[in-house]
Design goal:
This protein is about 30% helix and about 35% strand. The chain is α+β, with helices and mostly antiparallel strands.
């Protein structure tokens, strides 16, 4: 499948909302129970891009078919070199088409160039495909919280995966 990766723009908010909304309504992949408005997504794109990459994958017609971005892992200053990464592809995208890998690798490249040191992925603990995906990209499990989220009448746990993406010798962020 042919695709390109580019910086997310405000005009992508509706497509991103649709992709994420599928997972909100149909899965435990996200613990969100309500999908935000297009304005919420527009605001998120603008705010995220102040300090982190926000990228999209587009098919050959230009349609957004996936997105990846990073954000603050916790609000305390000492966490400034670590990020939580997020990735979603359209449910219409064929599995193992390489789009998720390409998005995550580009996100990692951009985060590393800025000076971030660690990427964290937070995954529902029974999401075997996402766990395998993160492991294949060099992430290691660093935490497991059982029964932390309740959605669709079920308790679910999460696992945290981490990957070092930068040298710990240079403590400069190039924002």
């Amino acid at each position: 499948m042919e695709f390109t990766i580019r910086e997310a723009e405000i005009s992508d908010a509706s497509a991103i909302r649709d992709i994420y909304g599928y997972y909100v309504a149909n899965s435990f992949v996200t613990f969100s129970e309500v999908n935000g408005s297009i304005q919420d997504y527009e605001d998120s794109i603008v705010e995220t891009k102040k300090a982190y990459p926000y990228i999209v994958a587009c098919d050959k017609s230009g349609k957004v078919i996936g997105m990846a971005y990073a954000g603050q892992i916790r609000h305390h200053d000492a966490y400034k070199f670590s990020v939580e990464s997020t990735i979603y592809t359209s449910p219409e995208v064929p599995k193992k088409a390489g789009i998720g890998r390409a998005l995550y690798e580009e996100l990692e490249r951009r985060l590393s160039a800025i000076g971030y040191k660690y990427m964290y992925g937070v995954i529902t603990d029974d999401n075997v495909a996402s766990i395998a995906f993160h492991k294949a990209l060099g992430f290691e499990e660093v935490g497991h919280f059982t029964n932390i989220g309740y959605k669709f009448g079920e308790w679910k746990g999460i696992v945290w995966y981490r990957k070092q993406i930068g040298s710990l010798d240079d403590m400069t962020l190039k924002l």
